[in-house]
Automatic annotation (TrEMBL), chain A:
Domain ABC transmembrane type-1: residue ranges: 97-302
Keywords of this entry: Cell membrane, Membrane, Transmembrane, Transmembrane helix, Transport
Transmembrane segments: 7-28, 101-121, 133-159, 179-199, 252-271, 283-302
Family in the record: Belongs to the binding-protein-dependent transport system permease family.
Xref: Pfam families: BPD_transp_1, BPD_transp_1_N
Name the record gives this protein: ABC transporter permease
InterPro entries: BPD_transp_1_N (IPR045621), MetI-like (IPR000515), MetI-like_sf (IPR035906)
Recorded GO CC terms: plasma membrane
Major subcellular site: membrane
Subcellular localization, as worded in the UniProt entry: Cell membrane
GO annotation (BP), single: transmembrane transport
Organismal lineage: Bacteria, Bacillati, Actinomycetota, Actinomycetes, Propionibacteriales
Length: 314, 327
């Protein structure tokens, strides 16, 4: 029952954040120079023509009205129609979203699978050459830009060794297995940096946990080192761990924009790039809205997990 | 036969030229069922002694020499490495800080049960039943409900009782209690002392009571050992030692105790402080702080027998009549 109350509270606190995020994007779009009516009608359109287009798109309404009608529709699942193609934006997003979700999930798995054990190992060998090597490698890993890493991975594993398909693979819908294979390199490019970050955070949290009085108590009771490290110290380090994993999700979504471009993946990241080039307000708004939803959902999961992982938080 | 025999225990911290010696040739024995007080100021080596016995000193930063046998089993090998089968050694410890010594994110029950399952190989159901019985034995009311409690939901006294229950779960023949009552208030302190005493009596368990509080020693212990700067300076039955100490340091500790007659007077203090580990003092290590020091005290000092059960590391203990306290 506690869990329902916790989820409820967290959901309620997410609503203002979502409104704020969409409002900022909405206003920013209106502040940047450029008129979508001009973009649609072309540079030589007549003023009457432009006025007609603005009216059709609702751009002649006051900003408040524009925002309210958009957000109202958005919550009912209608993200509007694209200025450029006249297609339903909801359909467009739904078509592009799955591949990005699969990519970021794979990248998150890569980050955790690499970062977590590496951090735990380093913490156990603290101040040994092994620890120093791992910490240095992690710092270097954080500094590597993911587009560069992506290109290196393409050169080595796709072009030279041919283990994985190169950029511009098949779509997830037409051939899932082949598409997943094609997502391995992008997921690595995206996830390795996150793994380095997780490694560093886990290491410092574990070093702290392992030096506490209760770990000494566990040693005194004769628990095995494995149980002390992987059960007790890790659970006590889980708050910073949940925080960093949660942060990684928003980083990965942001990083997907670049990595999708490098690997020619038509996900939501490349959709955002295309829409920005074409000044397609509705699509940009929709992408930000969806990204904000994902980040908020992640925060919600992180918040709930705090309360489940640490009984002292109520 | 003694339950615990320690011979020539030495502990060094650090490596090579940065090495610092924390314990010097500590010998001690504890008989079955006996409660022994290990007394000294901070830095005297009493906690290092107990951590060494527990195998809780980090082997990467410390080195142990000497021999320690508990109930016929060596606690470490010739090279000072912890006995691999330590889990079978009937030894357990209660720590000073009940607030931090329990794992905050696991329930009391799970911390007890895992101890029983690792140390005594019980299955889940047995461990659960035994945990409830242990909580009951340490005087926790409604033990079944308390199994589900997290440490932060308990008071300091209750947490220390849980610590004692966890120690008992190891089925120890020797319990090391490191200042278990320092962090709780006085009424709880008295209850915990009574609890430890009665548990020791019921179970025939020996206790090594590490404390700086001579009041606790006189109430609880059969025998006491005074440590100073990593060395044993005096040992003997509590009544004898407190009645007429054989070492000026023990006398100083006694004089520093407040007593009903001393109201309004300044409490006596021992001038100076414990030399930091690594400092070398020629002869008696207490000499720089000792009001009775003579030239001969610059020679190395041995423990000198004062009676059948008493020894003190002071060449003048027979000649001087150090002041004790009437009991």
């Amino acid at each position: 029952m506690r869990i329902f109350r916790v989820v409820g509270t967290c959901l309620l606190s997410a609503v203002p954040t979502l409104i704020l995020a969409t409002l900022i994007v909405f206003l920013l779009q209106r502040l940047i120079p450029g008129d979508p009516a001009v973009a649609i009608a072309g540079d030589y359109a007549t003023p009457e023509n432009l006025a007609r287009i603005r009216e059709e798109l609702g751009l002649d309404q006051p900003l408040v009205m524009q925002y309210l009608s958009w957000i109202g529709n958005a919550f009912t699942g209608d993200l509007g129609t694209s200025f450029q193609t006249g297609e339903s934006i909801t359909a467009l997003v739904l078509q592009r979203l799955p591949v990005t979700l699969v990519l970021t999930t794979m990248a998150l798995v890569v980050a955790v699978v690499i970062g977590l054990p590496a951090g735990v190992w380093a913490a156990q060998k603290v101040d040994t050459p092994f620890d120093r090597f791992l910490t240095t490698a992690a710092t270097a890993g954080i500094a590597i830009p993911n587009f560069w890493l992506g290109m290196m991975l393409i050169i080595v594993f796709a072009l030279t060794l041919g283990w994985f398909p190169g950029p511009g693979g098949v779509s997830l819908q037409s051939d899932p297995a082949q598409a997943l294979r094609g997502l391995v390199l992008p997921a690595l490019a995206l996830g390795l940096v996150g793994g380095a970050e997780i490694c560093r955070q886990v290491r410092s949290a574990m070093v702290e946990s392992l030096s506490t009085d209760y770990v000494r108590t566990h040693r005194a009771k004769g628990l095995t080192n494995r149980s002390i490290v992987w059960k007790h110290a890790l659970k006590n380090s889980s708050l910073p761990l949940a925080t960093i994993i949660g942060l990684q999700v928003s980083r990965l979504i942001g990083g997907a924009v670049v990595v999708e471009a490098v690997f020619g993946i038509s996900g939501i990241g490349s959709l955002a790039v295309e829409a920005t080039n074409q000044r397609d307000y509705g699509v940009i708004q929709a992408v930000v809205f969806v990204a904000a939803l994902i980040v908020l959902l992640t925060n919600l999961i992180v918040d709930v997990s705090y309360r489940l992982l640490d009984p002292r938080i109520s | 036969m003694a339950l615990l025999t320690v011979e020539g225990l030495q502990v060094h911290f650090g490596h090579d030229e940065n090495q610092v010696q924390a314990l010097y040739d500590v010998d001690l024995t504890i008989e079955p069922g006996e409660i022994v007080g290990l007394v000294g100021e901070s830095g005297s080596g009493k906690t290092v002694t107990s951590l060494a016995l527990m195998g809780l000193l980090d082997p990467r930063s410390s080195r142990i020499e000497g021999r320690a046998v508990l109930d016929g089993q060596p606690l470490w090998n010739e090279r000072g490495e912890r006995n691999a089968a330590r889990r079978d050694v009937p030894l357990a410890m209660v720590f000073q800080e009940p607030m931090t010594a329990l794992d905050p994110v696991f329930t009391v029950g799970s911390q007890l049960m895992e101890t029983l399952r690792t140390r005594r190989g019980m299955d889940k159901a047995q461990a659960r039943a035994e945990s409830v019985a242990l909580l009951d034995a340490v005087g926790i009311s409604d033990p079944k409900a308390r199994m589900k409690a997290y440490p932060h939901e308990l008071s300091g006294g209750m947490r220390q009782r849980v610590m004692i229950a966890i120690a008992l779960a190891c089925d120890p023949k020797l319990l090391i209690a490191d200042e278990p009552t320092t962090a709780v208030d006085v009424t709880i302190q008295a209850q915990l002392l009574d609890l430890i005493k009665s548990l020791a009596r019921e179970r025939g368990m020996s206790v090594l009571f590490v404390t700086h509080d001579l009041g606790v020693v006189s109430e609880t212990c059969d025998r006491m050992i005074t440590m100073y700067a990593g060395r044993i300076v005096e040992r003997g039955p509590v009544a004898e030692v407190l009645g007429s100490p054989g070492h000026p340091y023990t006398m100083g500790l006694l004089a520093a105790l407040p007593s009903p007659g001393s109201r309004g007077e300044r409490l006596a203090t021992i001038p100076g402080r414990v030399p930091p580990p690594g400092t070398t003092v020629e002869g008696c290590v207490f000499r720089p702080r000792c009001p009775f020091a003579v030239d001969e005290c610059t020679k190395p000092q041995d423990l000198i027998p004062l009676s059948t059960a008493r020894e003190a590391r002071c060449i003048r203990s027979r000649e001087l009549d150090f002041q004790g306290v009437a009991r």
